[in-house]
Amino acid sequence: MDADFDPIDEARRQWIAHGWEDAADGMTFVTSIMRAQQLMLARVDRTLRPFNLTFARYELLALLSFTRTGQLPMSKATARLQVHPTSMTNAVDRLEHAGLVARSPHPRDGRTTLVGITDAGRALVGEATEALNSVFRSPGLEQPQLDVMLDLLAQHRRNLAD
User: Fold this and answer.
1) Among 53, 71, 102, 126, which residue has the least CB neighbours within 10 Å?
2) Sign of the CA dihedral 52, 57, 60, 63?
3) Which residues belong to any copy of the HTH marR-type domain (predicted)?
4) Sign of torsion, CA 88 93 99 104?
5) What are the structural domain ranges in the chain?
6) Comparing C-alpha atoms, which of 91, 141, 84 is closest to residue 117?
7) Helix H or strand E segment including 110
8) Could you tell me if 40 and 139 are in contact, meaning their C-beta atoms sit under 8 angstroms apart?
9) Torsions phi, psi of 115, nearest 5?
10) Bridge partner list, 105
């Protein structure tokens, strides 16, 4: 493939050529964000693979490791990670099977299930975080650009009512 060829730029050109000029910039933006997400996720996945973790499972372990007690109601973990309850159940099932988290009944609310990180989960998330910080320390932008991008993305999420 030609190193100078950018498929997203070509898609933009085609959008304009087909009379969708009013949507071309938005299509380019959305497609660029989605491609950047794919590239970043691939880096994260490669980094977490030796730990047998997906990013979703890593996020749950990290969230639990940050709590004072090491546990949260599953509904609260779901809300904080902004995932569907089914995705949370799947992540907890896999992590529990690996001995990294444990479910327990809430002591005061019989309808609530707590998910808590185990000692093995704490150890693993610590190691995985050290590895993952190599990705986070070099996200592909220099600091001034990163500051601008973080501001723009925060504004964009607010505009979309995140």
Assistant:
1) 126
2) positive
3) 26-158
4) positive
5) 1-51, 53-162
6) 91
7) none
8) yes
9) -120, 130
10) 113
Instruction: Give residue 102's Cα distance to chain centre.
Output: 22
Q: Is 160 helix (H, G, I), strand (E, B) or coil?
A: coil
What are the tens digits of pLDDT across the range 6-37? 999 999 999 999 999 999 999 999 999 999 99
Q: Is there a contact between 34 and 8 (Cβ–Cβ < 8 Å)?
A: no
Residue whose tokens read 């491609």: 35
Annotate 41-97 with three-state secondary structure: HHHHHHHHHHHCCCHHHHHHHHHHHHCCCCEEEHHHHHHHHCCCHHHHHHHHHHHHH
Instruction: Extract the tokens encoding 114.
Output: 């707590």
Residue that has been written with the tokens 């969230």 in this structure: 63
Take residue 48 and report the two structure tokens written for it. Answer: 């977490």
What topology does CATH give the domain 53-162?
Answer: Arc Repressor Mutant, subunit A (1.10.10)
Total residue length of the chain: 162
pLDDT tens for 35-86 read 999 999 999 999 999 999 999 999 999 999 999 999 999 999 999 999 999 9
**Token pair for 101:** 């988290």
φ and ψ of 140, to 5 deg: 105, 0
pTM: 0.87
